[in-house]
């Protein structure tokens, strides 16, 4: 009875929600204070054990007693809360420590590569200009006059350098999407090729022009033009190697998530293993449903319950080892497998029934709430402009009427850790702003979406480790298997080559489409 009263008081507070959850948070902190806070010595901080998002919508303990399966599944997560509204779990602590260890080396490697590329690019663009200006500075009086053709070459060099600058910016100066463990082989080869090319041009220029002080200025300008032309061809080669070569599909990869077995198929071209891993991860965040470890606890708790119900008696005395007990428990569990599948069947059927029931209640509550906001809009149009509600205020007004049904549905489907009250209010105000229907609002909660749909704080996969028997810089081959590991699960990638397809042609003469109607005497015709 007290739990019900607590629940009713909590949801009655949502009707007076003013956009800030400080009051609810302060009440929750006072309710969890220890007896030591009476003297004022420990009134600032408290430690609670709860599900990761410490929100009033999804953190009410009174409604949790309505469902037996929700009693223990969230007790393994420890959230440390203080005067702020942020929470941190054990997984977050391990992830932060790992990120701190790897951040220093990754940043040094990234900035070193960018520095080398920037210095080399600056050298490439300044070299043709230096070829033209050095004779004018060192032996200008001895140079032959530059005619019309020579002056036209100045315009050619200027526009070619501009085109090369734009192409280089579009191809190379892009924000990196990820940090790869090894260097990109083709990019490194292009950098080495450009360095050797520019070095050879400088070597020839120093020996044949600077030492001899060549007076043929038109020939010097043509030499600079040939350098710019060669750089444009190298840029074309970079486009072919870095962009066009990988477009043609050559391999099909199967990606399987190790925890729940969800899989997807993708087609890839000629890529290295590390670049194929990046493509797989980019598609994972938009194609795979978000990883929910709470859905995996049901089977583990069911197996633990069956094993806990077994008793082993040692009739041979204390000298018997533990391996005999283990074999006895496994054998007893095997004998009980005929009854366990019935329990699984009824558990799943009961869970589906509860989900359908909570879903129906949620749909009705949301439809009634959206009907109410439509009526509010019609009434507010007749009032003064100062009394009009913005989408945020409208969302706060209708949110309490659907909060209880949404809370129970998210608990039943084990999604409450991905949706905080603030994110729900933001989504509700977004739907109201864009005049979206209740069905559009519920789409995010009725069906688990991809990882990109949720906040980055709710992701269980940010830092990945590539495990492969082959070198990560080698290209994809038929039968190659590599694994992408993160803190909670892994993605197993199996590569298969697309088979060679032999397509033949068969010609059909249009005159051969002739038919005859055969009539029999027994028919009515």
TrEMBL record:
Biased composition (Polar residues): 74-86
Region (Disordered): 1-86
Biased segments, Basic residues type: 19-35
Keywords: Cell membrane, Membrane, Transmembrane, Transmembrane helix
Membrane topology recorded in Swiss-Prot or TrEMBL: Multi-pass membrane protein
Origin superkingdom: Eukaryota
Subcellular location: Cell membrane
GO cellular component annotations of the record: plasma membrane
Biased composition (Basic and acidic residues): 36-45
Any matching Pfam family: Strabismus
Transmembrane segments: 111-133, 153-172, 184-204, 224-244
Chief site of localization: membrane
Family in the record: Belongs to the Vang family.
Protein name in UniProt: VANG1 protein
Annotated source species: Halcyon senegalensis
Lineage: Eukaryota, Metazoa, Chordata, Craniata, Vertebrata
Gene responsible for this protein: Vangl1
């Amino acid at each position: 009875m007290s739990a019900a009263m607590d629940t009713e008081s909590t949801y009655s507070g949502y009707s007076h929600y003013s956009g800030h959850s400080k009051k609810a948070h302060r009440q929750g902190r006072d309710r969890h204070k220890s007896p030591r806070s009476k003297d004022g010595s420990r009134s600032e901080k408290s430690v609670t054990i709860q599900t990761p998002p410490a929100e009033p919508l999804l953190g009410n303990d009174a409604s949790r007693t309505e469902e037996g399966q929700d009693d223990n599944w969230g007790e393994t997560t420890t959230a440390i809360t203080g005067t702020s509204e942020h929470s941190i779990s054990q997984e977050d602590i391990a992830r932060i420590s790992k990120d701190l260890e790897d951040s220093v080396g990754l940043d040094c490697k990234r900035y070193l590569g960018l520095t080398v590329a920037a210095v080399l690019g600056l050298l490439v663009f300044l070299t043709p200009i230096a070829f033209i200006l050095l004779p004018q500075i060192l032996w200008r009086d001895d140079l032959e006059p530059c005619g019309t053709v020579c002056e036209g070459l100045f315009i050619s060099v200027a526009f070619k350098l501009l085109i090369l600058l734009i192409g280089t910016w579009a191809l190379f100066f892009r924000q990196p999407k990820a940090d790869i463990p090894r260097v990109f082989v083709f990019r490194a080869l292009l950098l080495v090729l450009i360095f050797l090319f520019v070095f050879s041009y400088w070597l020839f220029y120093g020996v044949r022009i600077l030492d001899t002080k060549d007076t043929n200025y038109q020939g010097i300008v043509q030499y600079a033009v040939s350098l710019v032309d060669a750089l444009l061809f190298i840029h074309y080669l970079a486009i072919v190697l870095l962009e066009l070569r990988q477009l043609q599909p050559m391999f099909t990869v199967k990606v399987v998530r190790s925890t729940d077995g969800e899989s997807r198929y993708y087609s890839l071209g000629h890529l290295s293993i590390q670049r194929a891993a990046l493509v797989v991860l980019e598609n994972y965040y938009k194609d795979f449903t978000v990883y929910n470890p709470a859905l995996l606890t049901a089977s583990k708790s069911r197996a633990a319950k069956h094993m806990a119900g077994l008793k082993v008696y040692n009739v041979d005395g204390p000298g018997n080892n533990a391996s005999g007990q283990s074999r006895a428990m496994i054998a007893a569990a095997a004998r009980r497998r005929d009854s366990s599948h019935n329990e699984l069947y009824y558990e799943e059927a009961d869970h589906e029934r509860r989900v359908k029931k909570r879903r129906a209640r949620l749909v009705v509550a949301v439809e009634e709430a959206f009907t109410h906001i439509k009526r509010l809009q019609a009434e507010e149009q007749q009032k003064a402009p100062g009394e009009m509600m913005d989408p945020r205020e409208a969302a706060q007004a209708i949110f309490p009427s659907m909060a209880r049904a949404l809370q129970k549905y998210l608990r039943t489907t084990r999604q409450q850790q991905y949706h905080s009250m603030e994110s729900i209010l933001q989504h509700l105000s977004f739907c109201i702003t864009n005049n979206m229907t209740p069905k559009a609002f519920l789409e995010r909660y009725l069906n688990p979406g991809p990882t990109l749909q949720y906040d980055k704080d709710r992701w269980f996969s940010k830092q990945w480790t590539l495990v492969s028997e082959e070198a990560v810089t080698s290209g994809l081959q038929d039968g190659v298997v590599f694994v992408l590991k993160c803190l909670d699960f892994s993605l197993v990638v199996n590569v298969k080559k697309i088979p060679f397809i032999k397509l033949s042609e068969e010609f059909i003469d249009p005159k051969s489409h002739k038919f005859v109607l055969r009539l029999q005497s027994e028919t009515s015709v």
